[in-house]
Amino acid sequence: MTTTGTRVLVLNAGSSSVKYQLIDMLDGARLASGLVERIGEVEGRLLHLPLTGEPREQVRRFADHDGALRAVADELAADLMGLDSPELAAIGHRVVHGGLRFTRPTLINDSVVAEIRRLIPVAPLHNPANITGIEVARAMRPDLPQVAVFDTAFHSTLPEYAARYAIDRKTAEEHRVRRYGFHGTSHQYVSRATARLLGRDPAELNVIVLHLGNGASVSAVAGGVCVETSMGLTPLEGLVMGTRSGDVDPGLVFHLHRVGGLSVDQIDDLLNRRSGLLGLCGDNDMREVVRRAQGGDEDAKLAFDSYVHRIRRYLGGYYAVLGRVDAVAFTAGVGENSAEVRAAVCANLEELGISVEPELNAVRSRRARTISPSYGRVTVAVVPTDEELEIAQQTFALVHEV
Ligand code: ADP
Q1: Does the Cβ of 240 fall within 6 Å of ligand 1?
Q2: Are 110 and 138 spatial neighbours (Cβ–Cβ below 8 Å)?
Q3: Do residues 217 and 182 make contact, with C-beta atoms less than 8 angstroms apart?
Q4: In 10 A of CB 114, how many CB atoms?
Q5: Annotated active-site residue in 151, 283, 326, 386
Q6: Residue 242 beta carbon below 6 angstroms from any ligand 1 atom
Q7: Is ligand 1 within 6 A of the CB of residue 222?
Q8: pLDDT at 3
Q9: Which of 334, 319, 336, 320 is nearest to 371 (CA)?
Q10: Average pLDDT, stretch 274-288?
């Protein structure tokens, strides 16, 4: 495919929001970024952040994704970087669920959209919005290469014994039940960036990546290949998160339904939106949880300890899965910013070669950095994630492949 442009527009369409970044692939510069939120509500908001100049805000109704994306296109055009500019090489779309079919970035055509649509039953919250974003962008620039980058793709290398639940095989196959994993773009980016930080080849490095944001997941990456991850069929499995429970006994669902009288939808809402840190202490922002815990609040302390305990269980488990661990990388909102969480996760693990140097851990920075002492057998690092850059790079590489 021939294209002379060097810019990629990255779109991340959620159910009521669209986030975007226009990135120049020559130097990775963000030429513009922004978001539209509360799409469909009476009062929505667009925030546009140009590379130079003041941020611009529109507070008004954005009836649907079509209206929202048109407003974004107008903002970019006002900066002379509209969707019709020749510098634009491609649009990269974040798509949450690629099922078993999409294991790499994929050039979008009608049949790809149809296949992403077929995956809606396994990703009812995310894929419909992602498809809407793709359809609106394709309608606006039908001639421009558009690429889908899947959150599940990096985890498609999980061995079968890690990807399968121990349930009846026919039932699993009929309903496409298996562990897909999520946050893959971040785990991929951070595992490679960790190798770069260490000056090592990703192919010779074993890394445990702790992506701790609102949603949170751990992955074990052996020589650049993901071999285990904590999210499963849905992004509910695994760690304690902001509002999600993570692992529970599946019997809890039957119990709440049969004994508690809750409907399936109520249990879904409970486990996804009213659990995790929020369920345990009433706050889902780690800053607030830490502040309250330090002030002696018992609920916040319990929430913090549960959050950390779950991460440590996975850390130990993935250590055993990998056999040898070269690095542990903390990333995303909590991982990049909370020295308290990092210190608690790594406490008393000297026998495993894991420890953090308090002075290094206390440093606040947006750069990738090491926080373990020089004698530590395992490098502990803070590595800021950049999912948009990863999507842009994968998109750009694909349109230049042919
Ligand atoms: P998302 O999963 O929505 O992309 P982020 O990776 O941006 O989330 O993480 C958001 C979370 O990061 C917030 O809910 C907050 O708990 C946490 N966070 C952000 N800054 C700090 C900080 N300075 N200290 C502790 N936690 C923080």
Answers
A1: no
A2: no
A3: yes
A4: 10
A5: 151
A6: yes
A7: no
A8: 65
A9: 336
A10: 97
Whether 139 has a pLDDT exceeding 80, the answer reads yes
Contact criterion met (CB below 8 Å) for 217 and 343: no
Distance 245 CA to ligand 1 centre (A): 17
Instruction: Yes or no: say if 379 and 198 are a contact pair by the CB < 8 Å rule.
Output: yes
What is the distance between the alpha carbons of residues 391 and 67, in angstroms, rounded to a whole number?
Answer: 24
Q: Which two tokens stand for residue 61?
A: 């109704």
For helices 127-140 and 65-78, angle between their N-to-C axes, nearest 10 degrees: 50
Concerning whether 151 is annotated as a catalytic residue, the answer is yes
Greater model confidence, 336 or 15: 336
* pLDDT (tens digit per residue) in 56-89: 999 999 999 999 999 999 999 999 999 999 999 9
Question: Residue 391: pLDDT above 60?
Answer: yes
Name the average pLDDT for the chain. 95
Ligand 1 in reach of 213 Cβ (< 6 A) = yes
Question: In the structure, what pLDDT confidence band is assigned to residue 110 with cuts at 50, 70 and 90?
Answer: very high
C-alpha pair distances (Å), 25 with each of 88, 110, 383: 10, 27, 21
SS3 per-residue string spanning the chain: CCCCCCEEEEEEECCCCEEEEEEECCCCEEEEEEEEECCCCCCEEEEEEECCCCCEEEEECCCCHHHHHHHHHHHHHHCCCCCCCCCEEEEEEEECCCCCCCCCCEECCHHHHHHHHHCHHHCCCCHHHHHHHHHHHHHHCCCCCEEEEECCHHHHHCCHHHHCCCCCHHHHHHCCCCCCCCCHHHHHHHHHHHHHHHCCCHHHCEEEEEEECCCEEEEEEECCEEEEECCCCCCCCCCCCCCCCCCCCCHHHHHHHHCCCCCHHHHHHHHHHCCHHHHHHCCCCHHHHHHHHHCCCHHHHHHHHHHHHHHHHHHHHHHHHHCCCCEEEEEHHHHHHCHHHHHHHHCCCHHHCCCCCHHHHHCCCCCCEECCCCCCCCEEEECCCCHHHHHHHHHHHHHCCC
Contact between 386 and 189 under an 8 Å Cβ cutoff? The reply is yes
